[in-house]
Amino acid sequence: MIKFDKKIQEEIEEINHNPAIINILEVICQTTGMGFAVVARVTEKRWIALAVKDNINFGLTSGGELNINTTICNEILKHHEPVVVDNFEEDEMYKCHQTPLIYGLKSYISFPIFLKNGDFFGTLCAIDPNPAKVKTAQVRGMFNLFTDLISFHLNAMEEIRVSQIKLEEERKEAKFREQFIAILGHDLRNPVGAINSAVQLQLRLPLDERTFKLAKIIQDSSKRTIGLINTMLDLAQGKLGRGIALNYTAGKKLENTLNEVITELRTISPDRVIEVEMNLKEEIRCDHKRVAQLFSNVLGNALTHGAKDQPVVIRALSNEKGFELIVTNPGTKIPEETMNNLFKPFSRGEITSRHEGLGLGLYIASEIARAHHGKLEAKSNDEYTSMTFSIEKNNIFT
């Protein structure tokens, strides 16, 4: 049993079972009158038949080998030129060549096959024990066309092979991400939660001033760590394709949810003016906690990057046409390159390069909008920047 490396074995199986290449070999035999045609893999050490059409019982099948030193393909490997012989007995260059003497040949044609990158792959050959008229422009043109088609097929095979390798790598990466999520969801969040609970109990005790400050630092840091873990979990859920999960809220007004976010950020930025216009004629079906997260990210972004001496304007509207939440802040225009990546993870760009954070806020906000079958869009010019969260009327009203 002849053994081949994995790649050659794949080439034998794929080429030998390709109907187009089998048809090419049949056309060659019918057109030239020659009895044997083959696509051969040729290297410095080996000559291997990948696909064969044998009408003369030459005795070589797919996967069969010839001694490379007994073939003319060995010479084609070196000079990269086709060899065409009508009759070896009458050919001045090849009449004493060993190949026709060894294999009992009279006529022969072999054209090199090159890969897309220019590398030599092998040959397309036809042979016969009788003379044949193959030194014609028509036969040469046919072989040129067929070798180009085989080359195209080989390149397609390689691209598929590379794609399969990449797909397998992506599957492994997806599995790794799932494991990473599990670590974040359990192994990290649980101990940080325990730290936060313990420091809350500590803060209820009588503490001296220094100990109280240290406990507050631990509390603030643990809360921030929990927030980062939750943000990374949201990122992972979005990137894995499942999207952010929603828990639809019942019995609560969206206006109250939005006002809670506004109150919180006014407390954090007491020197900023926030103007609000709300006209929510219809309650929408949504996850209030997630909408609050989206709104907090967008409004926080506006307060951070907008002009400090001008108000941030909020408009929230809902009616029979749908829902819109618009946050507008005066300021300089966001660069086009940054705009193109605004809702991509870890894209901080020029507008955020001086500020802390992972660059995930707007990405997660856009994922929350997508989970609600809505969208988050940004517009920016020399006067202001606005972000709009919108949901069309279909299936949003309670």
For the termini, the CA-CA separation is 72 Å
**Roughly how many Å is the radius of gyration?**
36 Å
Extended strand count:
11
Number of helices: 11
The averaged pLDDT comes out at 87
Class of the largest domain, according to the CATH hierarchy? Alpha Beta
Which geometry do the CA atoms define? elongated
Would you tell me which CATH topology of the largest domain applies? Heat Shock Protein 90
Please report which band the strand proportion falls in: under 5%, 5-15%, 15-25%, 25-35%, 35-45% or over 45%. Answer: 15-25%
Under the CATH scheme, which architecture of the largest domain would be assigned?
2-Layer Sandwich
Uncertain parts: 349-358
The secondary-structure element order is: HHEEEHEHEEHHHEHEEHHHEE
- Helix content percent band: 40-55%
Overall structural domain count: 3
Helix and strand layout, with pairings?
Blueprint (H helix, E strand, L loop, with lengths): L5 H11 L2 H14 L3 E7 L4 E8 L10 E2 L6 H7 L3 E3 L12 H6 L3 E8 L5 E9 L8 H67 L5 H31 L14 H15 L5 E7 L7 H18 L6 E8 L2 E9 L5 H5 L8 H4 L8 H11 L3 E6 L3 E9 L6
Parallel strand pairs: 7-8
Antiparallel strand pairs: 1-2, 1-6, 2-3, 4-5, 5-6, 8-9, 9-11, 10-11
